[in-house]
Amino acid sequence: MRMLQVVRKDLLRFFRDRRALVVSLVLPLIITFIMGLSFGGGVFGKKGISAIRIVGVTDGIPQMLRDPLTEGLEETGFFSVTWADSNTADEMVRGGEAAAAIVLPDDLVERFFQFEPIRIRVWKDPGSPLKAGIVEQVIERSLSPIQAGEAVYAGLWPEDIQPQRNQEWTSTLESYFQGDVQSVWKQWKQADEDPFWDIFQREFTRIMDRQAALSDAMEGPGVALEVENKAMTDAEGPQDDVNLFNYFLPTFSVFFLMFGVAAAARDFHREREMGTLNRQLLSPLNDRDFVLGKWMAAAIQGSIQLLVLFLAGAVLFRVNLGSDPWSLPLAVILTCTSAAGFFLLITLVCRTEKVADTLSTITVLAAAMLGGNMMPVDQLPDWVRSVGQYFFNYWANVSFSRVMVSDENLLATPQPLLMLGGSTVLFLVASLVAYRIRRAKGGVL
Amino acid sequence: MIQIENLVKKFGSIRAVDGISFSVQKGELFGLLGPNGAGKTTTINVLSTLLPPDGGTASIGGYDVAGDPSAVRRLIGIVPQEIALYQDLPARDNLNFWGRLYGMSGKALRMRVEELLEMADLRQQAGQKVETYSGGMKRRLNLVVGLIHAPEVLYLDEPTVGIDAQARGRILELIKELSGSGLTVIYTTHYLEEAEHLCDRIGVIDRGSMVALGDKEELIDQVGDQDHIRFHLPTARIDEFTRAFSGRQDCVVSGVVRGKMELLATDGARLLPDLQSWMTAQGEQLEQLEVERPNLETLYLNLTGRGLRE
Questions:
Q1: DSSP string across A64-103
Q2: Which residues of B fall below an 8 Å CB-CB distance to A?
Q3: Is B307 inside any structural domain?
């Protein structure tokens, strides 16, 4: 097939072009190495990059609340959580054993039911500003919906905010939450004779009803529900050996991929300027073979780039490549075919290489911001996520995240792969149409 | 082999090719001579099916360029004005790629590649990247790439632009050899001496129109066989000079051409001493003297009022 001759020639040129090799492979490899080391890991598995270690500080939170909190934090893939008293936590943070400590007030439950301000502090390890910064960001984002909910609650039901202060009442209330679920349940069952039980039941029911109504009104505000849901799906329990780089490697690899594939697609303009395009137009090579050849060459270059980066990540920093043998290769191939189609289309609608270069750079940056290459997809605001879904890189990031972070089988939940495959077909057809229109207008000369 | 009738190609309101007609016989080396922007490359682009014509007809080997472009492409090879090569690949890889695009493979391709490398005198450098070649080497490779599939017709679009005299001589030699082997060639140039030296017939093109067509002798006959003598003459002496030289048998006074007095002489060399004597007798110096033997440049000047390199 003549298309394969175009592919073969473009790949030959790619491997002989030192500049292209440096930009596509060497530079991303160097940055992979720097990023890998900056996340605190060693190389060759001596000290792999692990999840950010944080310590939860409290002496007063019952175990039944600690567990979902731990699971919720660890489910993000970023954190490994331990609990300690404040002195031990202070030592751990100061000694660099933990990147940060989240300090919850001892009387958290009591304050919650009395609507008193709950102050959560984050102690950061000054030696790990990047990791500690991530902890701070995540906690801040998680708390904001709760804070918003509290503000609304206070506005709607101010009478709940200043309940009667009764030392006896609050200490009894605290006793209802001591121990594990079983012991709490036992206490609750035996509470019929307790003089405070009626008051508690009434207060608790009213507050929970109002909370539930508020939650409905706010369409399910974030963190509390989110944590619980994630805890339920993470039935196997926390993964202590989760590698933070599992998430970051694919996101920045896709970012580099977009630049690499865009440059490869722009070869159309370089060929036009060199005159080699005219010569191909005079050969028996037809339009379809030419466009497919250019697309496939760019896709293969991109796949090589991703595979090199992923293998380097796996060898040097123990990045998880997934347990299913098909998921990662499929995600790589479909990401690259979609990227190649997208940037070929941009190239073909632009008049010159300079215009194509400018437009593809702007598009890469916008797609990276909206599609989750600058910030984890989970952490993106809803509107950004809605827009991001129209970019192929969003689905690429979702695919890699599922394979490399959650170790999922993409064939079982193939939506991201289908989106990447569908966009590939769409971009290819559009590219072919754009090329034919351009050729009919003499725009390839 | 090539028949062109009233061919028109427009870009907006500009008629880049404005109704030209000519034919080229099989094995003929036909020159399209004209300055930059005359319409030579546009004509080649239409004949090679890269641009559709806006009027008239053109057929190559009996196939219409607009109606059956695929058949035309199989017959033609093109050597574009620019170095249309992959500079980051060696000569051999370039030839292999173009050969494979034409469906060649295996031993036939290898043999053809070696043959063309030999023809271009590039065997020693066949493994080096084209970007390391001299201008002449690149031009030679550019030329033989157009021959990879052994076309019946070869378009050469200014193939010697930007190279030194020695390299140019080598290219022209190569083209003569090709023409001698029976290949039909259309050669565009704005170098007069190349057209004179190489071509069996020449079409002179200006502003998209064919202003003269024929072999070298036919074209020069259109100018006449007289030498053109031009010199500076003060305006006050024009009438006096015209009276003095009008009666002579060996020359004709043309009048003032491009700011100079012009004489057409059957033998310019014999007339010059008389001219010198007359000027001295009038107390004038013979200044800015030009003596021009009739050639294609003269023809072009006569037809268009401007030089080929203007």
A1: HHHHHHHHHHHHTSSEEEEEE-HHHHHHHHHTTSSSEEEE
A2: 45, 48-51, 70, 73-74, 76, 78, 80-89, 93, 97-98, 100-103, 129, 145
A3: no
Quote the tokens at residue A422: 């569908």
Say if B302 falls within a structural domain.
Answer: no
Given CA atoms B137, B139, B140, B141 in this order, what sign does their dihedral have?
positive
Contact between A9 and B78 using a beta-carbon 8 Å cutoff: no
Q: B53 and B114, same structural domain?
A: yes
8 Å CB contact of B84 and A2: no
Our CA angle for A228, A62, A172, nearest 5°, is 120
Task: For A230-279, write each residue's pLDDT tens digit.
Answer: 222 333 333 444 567 788 889 889 999 999 999 999 999 999 999 999 89
Q: Please answer whether residues A410 and A324 qualify as being in contact, where contact means their C-beta atoms are separated by less than 8 angstroms.
A: yes
**Nearest-angstrom CA–CA distance, A257 and A307:** 11
CA A59 – CA A67 distance, rounded (Å)? 14
- Other beta carbons within 10 angstroms of residue B270's beta carbon come to 12
Q: What is the pLDDT of residues A107-162, one digit of tens each?
A: 777 776 666 677 778 887 777 666 777 777 777 777 766 767 766 776 777 666 55
Q: ipTM of this model?
A: 0.75
Sign of the torsion angle spanned by Cα atoms B160, B166, B172, B177: negative
Own/partner contacts of A413-420, CB < 8 Å, gap of 24 or more, are: A416/A331, A417/A330, A417/A331, A417/A334, A419/A392, A419/A395, A420/A331, A420/A334, A420/A335, A420/A337, A420/A338, A420/A392, A420/A395, A420/A396
Has residue B77 been placed in a domain? yes
Cα A4 to Cα B100: distance, rounded to the nearest angstrom: 10
B237 and B210 in a single domain? The answer is no
Please indicate, yes or no, whether residues B161 and B217 belong to a single structural domain of this protein. yes
Which residues contact residue A10 at a Cβ distance below 8 angstroms, ignoring those fewer than 6 apart? A264, A267, A293, A294, A297, A298, A301
For residue B210, give the CATH number of its domain.
3.40.50.300
**Does one domain contain both B215 and B232?**
no
Note whether B119 and B210 are same-domain residues. Answer: yes
Please list the helix, strand and coil fractions of chain B in percent, rounded to the nearest 5, in that order: 40, 30, 35
Owner of token pair 């024929």:
B214
* Listed residues B221, B245, B261: the one ending a domain: B221
The band of A93, judged by pLDDT with boundaries at 50, 70 and 90, is confident
Partner-chain contact A279 B100, CB within 8 Å: no
Asked whether residue B8 falls in the same domain as residue B49, the answer is yes
B233: containing domain: 226-293
The answer, for A124 touching chain B at a CB cutoff of 8 Å, is: no
- Number of structural domains chain B divides into: 2
Rg (chain A; Cα; Å): 28
pLDDT at B257: 80
Q: What share of chain A is helix, strand, coil (3-state, %, to 5)?
A: 70, 5, 25
Q: Which alpha helices (DSSP H) does B77-229 contain, by range?
A: 91-101, 106-119, 135-145, 165-180, 192-198, 216-223
Q: What phi, psi does A219 have (nearest 5°)?
A: 55, 50
Spatial distance between the Cα atoms of B97 and B145, rounded to a whole number of angstroms:
10
- Chain B residues with CB-CB distance to A8 below 8 A: 97
The predicted pLDDT at position A240 comes to 45
